[in-house]
Amino acid sequence: MNDTSKYHLRSGTAADGPYDLLVTPESAGWGYSGLRILTLGPGEAHSLSTHDSEFLVLPLTGSCSVTTDGKAFELEGRTGVFASVTDFAYVPRESEALISSAQGGLFALPSARTERSGLTARYGRKEDVPVELRGAGACSRQVNNYCLPGTFEADQLLVCEVLTPGGNWSSYPPHKHDEARPGLESELEEIYYFQVSGENGFGYQRVYGTPDRPLDVLAEVRSGDTVLIPHGWHGPSIAAPGYDLYYLNVMAGPGQDRAWLICDDPAHGWVRTTWAAQDIDDRLPFEGPNEQ
Fold first, then answer.
1. Does an H or E element contain 88, and which?
2. Helix or strand holding residue 5 (H, E)
3. Which DSSP category does 180 fall into?
4. How far does Cα 268 stand from its chain's mean position?
5. Residue burial 187-196, b: 16+ Cβ < 10 Å; e: rest
6. What is the dihedral of CA 76, 80, 85, 87, to 10 degrees?
7. d(CA 193, CA 198)
8. Are the beta carbons of 64 and 105 closer than 8 angstroms?
9. Measuring CA to CA, which residue among 226, 244, 242, 232 is closest to residue 142?
10. What pLDDT digit, counting tens, does each position of 93-115 carry?
11. Is the predicted pLDDT of residue 283 greater than 60, yes or no?
């Protein structure tokens, strides 16, 4: 059975109202993770009601102001996802937020359903975002760790970005996080939202299931595409030569402890042992937009 059409949301096919992309727990058929992509024209504003979820406001392109819970945050943003990390804002559940942009831009609103009401709206400085170079050789990639355990407090929400130079593989070896196994693996639903450099840029995303939970996705992805990962092994994410690949990861799940614990596919986990003998790709870190 090929599940690509169900889990690969091509750009524009999941638009709704003001959103270029709207993924909710209900539309995805799971319990926690969500993502909205919002375009604002110059001088436009958008009202966000968080209801039972916590959110980030994460600029992809452009800057914005976020007013919520009596606080105002000015997000400097960035010129594009390959240019730099960005500052961001956290908006807790049961809040109203106004997002406005003088110059316009594109903004990601990752979310996670939560029952915790004690967290407050906060500003995340770009200078505090840990940037990690992971892997080596053709598996080299950059990870911007915005909202993970140890980098930024949230209740259930986990958010990071992965940037992969053209010709490289990331999200590799394939791994999964769909079982609660203390100290070994956490149960997390995941969303991949893609952008690709270049007008005709593309990449590939693989997702496959376990014997007891079959799943079969091999998607050619382009800018604005999204892949949903309810369970199973995911990876590789493949950047075609000549086209750098970006994806935003949004994760959340039912665990009491907010943790990101993964398990490699044992058929391919050995690949990690080869990295010690290889250098990290010298195209990393990304320091500006790639406009091939």
1. strand 88-91
2. helix 4-7
3. -
4. 24
5. bbbbbbbbbb
6. 20
7. 17
8. yes
9. 244
10. 999 999 999 999 999 999 999 99
11. yes
DSSP 279: P
Q: Which two tokens stand for residue 197?
A: 């450099």
Residues 152-196: tens digit of each pLDDT = 999 999 999 999 999 999 999 999 999 999 999 999 999 999 999
In sequence order, what DSSP letters do the residues of 114-179 get, joined into one string?
--------EEE-GGGS-EEEES-GGG-EEEEEEESTTTS--SS-EEEEEEE-TT-EES-S-EE--S
Q: Are the C-beta atoms of residues 47 and 68 closer than 8 Å to each other?
A: no
Residues 6+ apart with CB under 8 A from 284: 133, 140, 141, 142, 163, 165
SS3 271: helix
Residue in the structure block whose two tokens are 């959110």:
55
Cβ distance 251 to 188 under 8 Å? yes
- Consecutive H or E run containing 125: none
Tokens matching residue 98: 């106004």
Q: Which candidate, 93, 25, 32, 91, places its Cα nearest to that of 58? A: 91
Count other C-beta atoms under 10 Å from residue 10's C-beta: 14
